[in-house]
């Protein structure tokens, strides 16, 4: 009853926010009225917070009686300032690491590590845990010597120092960055039990940089300049072709990541940010942008980053990352702690805009419960969701399903497989399933396992 | 000219729409009744804006494309038509044969992207340059700009090259240890000439290796890429030079049995391989014409909350106990982030070469 009223008030406030000032005043009157009403209603139910209610769930649990001793931390002084001029995580967090699978690639200079999503909270990935993907190892570039050139079909080819770039108006935005091969290992079935392996080829950080449209316009793009070809200064000299409309949408050249300079692994001193699109397009160590009339058809958009379909045809220039979501807690790195209440959490994101809804199923997709968001809901960024679940201790099949603001609903795996086959390598964005073993299931009781429909 | 899968699909699309034009005329009509090519609602922008910008909502797509062109395989094929507001295709990229440089675009229906490009660029009449950069001559980029595009712009002139036999020697010296003497691959490095069938026979079969012959649509890519990045440890090597890279390209194309004309003329050991030959081969890459622009999404589900249809539950037939599991540890427990798992052999389902 009370809940319903509060909900109604919330709706009124929401509406009033969308109206003019006068309507707003009217709206606040409604809120005031609503609050009074709410109070009256709860009084009728009897008296606010009841401390006795805290007792019930603990009835029957063994009480601890042993006197607690002071630990070492209480009895000796800790370390002083500047022991770590650049701070590091507690040694107890040493298992929280980027990881790779040695069999994925023949050497470490053209390889990938995954972010430990199971250990992250909120929507920001710490810089040291940002996933890595290299095609020619990580260079250590002196920013004083690094330059960015914009040339090709422009009125006036220009060269910029890093200081030049920082003089331009800046933008700071939080975006996810995802390798389109994220989830690639799961096309043929499940392989490994961790969200780090199933979804860890992505991260989400705050970038600061210069709008690409500002830089391109500065050089004077000619009307026949329909594509840009960004290129890296590393051994891979990586190139992609990006259509001008996409370049002018919301791309930028970033020099900072989570408030500090980019890390070398992520493109120090500058990288391209192409929000919502394949991370392979976010060229690192950016040194040159060539404005061109046609796409270059380079290796990263022909041999790689194209998707093979069952009939032998292949899809190319698949820039956007489809909406996707995953439950990070509980997930295979955890074990259930017994039947009872859980707050199921996870991440949802969309390459085409904001997340609109996340629904969670506990029965393999038959019924769904809408989750709420515990983080800000930002454009092309991770969104953290949470939903309450009363686990009765029986076997369960957990799935999450995102709907984004364009109206796209994340599909189940059998549907995606039927249509796109299993040889794509990239863009496997269908739902995953965590099987929760029944509590009374011998030594596996309460284990959480990655299974695939 | 080429009877590729792509041309077959294009033909199928034509029949599809010929057959369904009348069936679609009722519901998919826009307010104005106008249609693009007699197929799609011309007022798609209005429809999208009226639906709060939800351009991927199942109902919005259906109102614009009509039911037939919306879902699954047909939705995919419908998007090979550049006039389809959801298509990434550009007219000149449906090319089943001797192609020029194929293009893709942002679909017209992605209205917010176009709105933003207009605001930031096309309609930005207030633009004033800030003057923070320094002008640079195009000629100062002679070393940096080594881009070769799909049309062959950027290739060295025809005097640069060597015989395929000489190219093979350089390849064996600098590339063979990683990619195999005949391009068969070595030590886990990518093969460059393996002729596997790309058509799926069973979903559980290992994914086919995609190499220059059976997959790459352009020969120009090969010259650009190997001059740019190979040999892996010493990219863009002066001791190989444009001449040497050209010879290697000749050898790799020969190893992949790429032809030079309609008559099936093969690349010979004593052919002087240069940019002219490369551009001939570029027209006869075996898998060209089998590529098409992004077609996603082609799944448009409704957001179901209770008692969802079997097709969306469990195995796609309503069974939630029918699933695949990962391999288990010898004692039968599921495998987690454990060291013994991370150093194990590949599971053998072919995901190499991401």
Structural write-up:
The complex is a heterodimer of chains A (453) and B (354). Chain A has 453 residues and is of the alpha+beta class. Helix content of chain A is 17%, strand content 26%. Chain A folds into 3 domains: 3-45, no CATH class; 96-313, Oxidoreductase, molybdopterin-binding domain (Sulfite Oxidase, Chain A, domain 2, Alpha-Beta Complex), CATH 3.90.420; 324-451, Immunoglobulin-like. Chain A is built from 8 helices and 23 strands. In chain A, the strands form 6 sheets. In chain A, strands 4-3-12-7-8 form a 5-stranded mixed β-sheet. In chain A, strands 5, 6, 9, 10 and 11 form a 5-stranded antiparallel β-sheet that branches. In chain A, helix 1 (2-17) runs antiparallel to helix 2. The relative contact order of chain A is 0.11. A two-stranded antiparallel ribbon of chain B has the order 1-2. In chain B, strands 4-5 form a two-stranded antiparallel ribbon. The radius of gyration of chain B is 26 Å and the shape is globular. Residues 1-31 and 340-354 of chain B have low confidence and may be disordered. At the A-B interface, strand 3, strand 4, helix 4, helix 6 and helix 7 of A face helix 1, helix 4, helix 5, strand 3 and helix 8 of B. Strand 14 (314-316) of chain A pairs parallel with strand 6 (291-293) of chain B, so a sheet runs across the interface.
SSE layout and pairings?
The complex is a heterodimer of chains A (453) and B (354).
Chain A: H1 2-17, H2 21-45, H3 72-75, E1 112-113, E2 132-133, E3 148-152, E4 158-160, H4 162-167, E5 170-178, H5 195-199, E6 202-211, H6 212-219, E7 227-232, E8 242-243, H7 244-249, E9 252-257, E10 260-261, E11 271-273, E12 286-292, E13 307-308, E14 314-316, E15 324-329, E16 340-349, E17 355-361, E18 369-370, E19 372-373, E20 383-391, E21 396-404, H8 413-420, E22 433-436, E23 448-452
Parallel strand pairs in A: 3-12
Antiparallel strand pairs in A: 1-2, 3-4, 5-6, 6-9, 7-8, 7-12, 9-10, 9-11, 13-14, 15-16, 16-20, 17-18, 17-21, 19-20, 21-22, 22-23
Chain B: H1 5-24, E1 35-36, E2 40-41, H2 44-50, H3 58-65, H4 72-78, H5 111-122, E3 134-135, E4 162-163, H6 164-174, H7 176-179, H8 220-229, H9 241-255, E5 272-273, H10 275-282, E6 291-293, E7 324-325, H11 339-342
Antiparallel strand pairs in B: 1-2, 4-5
């Amino acid at each position: 009853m009370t809940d319903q009223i509060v909900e109604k008030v919330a709706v009124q406030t929401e509406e009033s926010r969308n109206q003019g000032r006068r309507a707003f005043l009217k709206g606040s009157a409604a809120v005031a009225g609503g609050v009074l009403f709410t109070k009256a209603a709860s009084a009728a139910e009897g008296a606010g917070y009841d401390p006795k209610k805290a007792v019930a769930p603990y009835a029957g649990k063994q009480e601890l009686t042993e006197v607690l001793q002071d630990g070492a931390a209480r009895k000796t002084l800790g370390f002083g300032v500047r022991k770590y001029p650049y701070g590091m995580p507690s040694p107890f967090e040493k298992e929280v690491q980027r990881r790779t699978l040695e069999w994925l690639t023949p050497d470490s200079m053209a390889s990938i590590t995954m972010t430990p999503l199971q250990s992250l909270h909120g929507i920001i990935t710490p810089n040291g845990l940002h996933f890595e993907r290299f095609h020619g190892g990580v260079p250590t570039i002196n920013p004083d010597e690094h330059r960015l050139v914009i040339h090709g079909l422009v009125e006036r080819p220009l060269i910029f120092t890093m200081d030049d770039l920082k003089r331009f108006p800046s933008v700071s935005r939080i975006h996810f960055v995802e390798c389109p091969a994220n989830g690639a290992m799961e096309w043929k079935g499940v392989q490994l039990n961790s969200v780090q392996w199933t979804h860890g080829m992505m991260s989400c950080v705050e970038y600061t940089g210069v709008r690409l449209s500002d830089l391109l316009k500065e050089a004077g793009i000619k009307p026949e300049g329909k594509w840009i070809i960004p290129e890296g200064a590393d051994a891979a000299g990586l190139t992609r072709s990006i259509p001008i409309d996409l370049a002018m949408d919301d791309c930028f050249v970033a020099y900072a990541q989570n408030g500090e300079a980019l890390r070398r692994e992520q493109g120090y001193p500058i990288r391209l940010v192409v929000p919502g699109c394949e991370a392979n397009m976010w060229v690192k160590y950016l040194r040159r942008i060539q404005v061109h009339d046609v796409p270059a058809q380079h290796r990263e958009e022909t041999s790689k980053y194209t998707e093979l379909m069952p009939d032998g045809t292949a899809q190319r220039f698949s820039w956007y990352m489809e909406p996707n979501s995953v439950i990070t807690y509980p997930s295979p790195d955890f074990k259930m702690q017994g039947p009872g209440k859980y707050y199921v959490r996870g991440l949802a994101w969309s390459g085409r805009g904001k997340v609109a809804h996340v629904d969670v199923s506990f029965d393999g997709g038959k019924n769904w419960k809408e989750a709420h968001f515990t983080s800000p809901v930002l454009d092309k960024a991770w969104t953290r969701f949470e939903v309450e679940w009363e686990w009765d201790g029986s076997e369960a099949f957990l799935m999450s399903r995102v709907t984004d603001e364009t109206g796209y609903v994340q599909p189940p795996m059998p549907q995606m497989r039927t249509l796109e086959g299993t040889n794509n390598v990239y863009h496997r964005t269908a739902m995953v399933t965590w099987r929760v073993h029944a509590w009374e299931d011998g030594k596996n009781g309460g284990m959480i396992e990655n299974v695939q429909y | 000219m080429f009877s590729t899968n792509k041309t077959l699909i294009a033909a199928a699309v034509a029949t599809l729409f010929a057959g369904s034009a009348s069936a679609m005329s009722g519901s998919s009509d826009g307010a104005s009744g106008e249609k693009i090519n007699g197929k799609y609602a011309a007022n798609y922008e209005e429809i999208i804006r009226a639906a709060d910008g939800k351009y991927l909502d199942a109902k919005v797509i259906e109102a614009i494309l009509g039911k037939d062109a919306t879902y699954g395989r047909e939705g995919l094929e419908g998007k090979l038509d550049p006039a389809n507001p959801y298509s990434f295709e550009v007219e000149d990229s449906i090319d089943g044969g001797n192609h020029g440089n194929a293009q893709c675009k942002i679909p017209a229906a992605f209205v917010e992207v176009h709105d933003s490009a207009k605001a930031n660029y096309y309609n930005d009449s207030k633009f004033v340059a800030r003057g923070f950069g320094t002008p640079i001559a195009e000629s100062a980029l002679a070393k940096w700009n080594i881009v070769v595009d799909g049309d062959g712009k950027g290739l060295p002139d025809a005097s640069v090259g060597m015989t395929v036999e000489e190219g093979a020697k350089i390849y064996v010296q600098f590339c063979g240890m990683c990619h195999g003497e005949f391009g068969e691959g070595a030590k886990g490095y990518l093969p460059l000439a393996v002729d596997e069938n790309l058509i799926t026979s069973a979903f559980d079969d290992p994914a086919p290796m995609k190499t220059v012959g059976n997959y790459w649509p352009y020969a120009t890519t090969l010259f650009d890429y190997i001059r740019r990045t190979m040999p892996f440890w010493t990219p863009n090597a002066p001791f190989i030079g444009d001449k040497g890279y050209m010879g290697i390209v000749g050898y790799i194309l020969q190893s992949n049995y790429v032809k030079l004309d309609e008559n099936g003329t093969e690349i010979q050991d004593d052919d002087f391989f240069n940019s002219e030959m490369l551009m001939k081969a570029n027209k006869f890459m075996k898998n060209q014409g089998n590529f098409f622009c992004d077609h996603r999404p082609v799944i448009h589900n409704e957001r179901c909350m209770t008692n969802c249809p079997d097709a969306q539950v469990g195995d796609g037939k309503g069974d939630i106990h029918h699933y695949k599991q990962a391999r288990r540890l010898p004692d039968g427990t599921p495998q987690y982030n454990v060291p013994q798992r991370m150093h194990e052999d590949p599971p053998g389902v072919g995901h190499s070469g991401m």
